[in-house]
Structure prediction request, 387 residues.
Amino acid sequence: MNRPLRIGITCYPSLGGSGVVATELGKLLAEKGHEIHFITHSIPFRLGKFDRNIFYHEVEVSDYYVFRYPPYDLSLASKMNQVARLQKLDLLHVHYAVPHAICAILAKQMAGDDLKVVTTLHGTDITVLAQDETLKDIIRLGIRKSDAVTAVSRDLINETRELLDIQEPIDLTYNFVDKRIYYPRECTDLRREYAEPHEKVLMHISNFRPVKRTSDVVDVFAKVNAAIPSKLILVGEGPDLPKIQKKIQELGLGHRVHFLGKQDDVAQVISLADLMLLPSEKESFGLVALEAMACGVPTVGSVAGGIPELVQHGKTGFLSPIGNTDDMADNALKLLTNKKLYSDFREACLHRAHNVFCDKLITSQYEEIYYRVLGMPLPIPVPVCNI
Ligand code: GMT
Prediction:
């Protein structure tokens, strides 16, 4: 058996799926005996209870008066170097390329070549930011200089190759959910607070950014609700939320929509729903569709990015061309009005989430990558996942 590793993890600690995945991965690695050092600007919001193998190192940014823009990136690189030296880290695993990959490369230059860098690409760090000419070359450098690069879908690997002309290998590491947390929760009483027993509950969870096309969520819901009595639950906050609230009022749907804001216990919230809506413009993976799948809730959404690698059209959900809200509404109605079809989809969701996107399997894929970049043999048998 190889020795446990000392791993520094950097991510955006307070928002987004990439932060959630990085934190959950750190927790699972710690459970397996590795020493995990989170190096972030605040404590990761999903960190939860105390674990003797988990440490947190806060990045403090200098606010010296000459700085118009406090140099967070340099403070992060310095902190990574300090932690790497003091804690004798084997590697830094950074999530989201900008600016984390290049900070890790700088830290490696300070700490020495023994410190390895693994970069995980999550989505808009490539699909949006790599199209920005002011950032493109520095993102490419961060990727090329990393000892290993992973991406959360095949689609994201292809986009990275195309947009940045990257020839180096990129490992595919799908996102995962912890099946001890994501399973269909009992919520009969709670559901009564939001919907009558005969009403269907549609849900959307996101950061309400333009790429999520939240206006399409409302259009799909309006069409479904015109055919069968329904409720829409919106979870999360972001720049498009006021626009969406206005649209809901204008359509006279205010009494049919619940806004829950940001929520922590996502599995409990998702268990209230019959259907998840994800009509995104861009979506490298769509973690929320996986979280829904693991709770037995099918997704109706778009074919954007990596969503088709996760949601199988006609088995665990339905996917339509981006913006085709008529087709999405038809698909939603097909599922919500056919009990047998719905229960087949629900079973398929549970099976796929817990077998293909299995936490143990994907954690061991990351371990494989770590031992590979460190030049250590890999004796870990690949786990078999079953529900
Ligand atoms: O890129 C973003 O919009 C934020 C980013 C994040 O930090 O959560 O989301 C991306 O990473 C998630 C976790 O891997 C994926 O599930 C999301 O699909 C991806 N977002 C986009 O591609 C828009």
In short: Residues 151 and 172 are 5 Å apart (CA to CA). Residues 188-355 form a domain with the Rossmann fold fold (CATH 3.40.50.2000). The longest helix spans residues 339-355.
